[in-house]
Amino acid sequence: MSGEKEEKCIFCDIVSGKAPAHRVYESEHALVILDIHPYTKGHCLVLSKKHVPWWHQLTGEETADLFQAANTVANRMMKTYKPDFVFLYARGRRIPHTHLFLIPTYGGDVLDRFFNALENFQESPAQLAALKDPALMAQAARELSEAE
Length: 148
Hints:
- The protein is an alpha+beta fold.
- It has helices at about 10-15, 60-80, 110-130, 135-145; strands at about 25, 30-35, 45-50, 85-90, 100-105.
- The chain has a domain at about 10-105: HIT family, subunit A (2-Layer Sandwich), CATH 3.30.428.
- It contains 4 helices and 5 strands.
């Protein structure tokens, strides 16, 4: 748990054992715990033992260990819960201490719907541009004007 701290950090307290947590896995540079606000059963946080806001501020060795811990636990999730996939993303904004979210994700759940919406948004500029086609505009106007 090296690194500069500006103020009290709950994740540093968890890593040092001063705060309670449901520990799932531990390595030299990482600690995996259950999230206290889970999206699904088994939702975990992979905490860096070093206090830095962003994962890219870690050394190569620390980063490799952090992601290896995530990989180990994600494989356990796949075996235990059999989700469609394990969602992973890195955080550090709300709690300025590097942590990765690992969330077992299933078709139709909140994260699956979120990603489907994001994919549609990524594709939408072309879809929206196509709606400007004069024939499609005339069709939409006809459909709406004839609707009762």
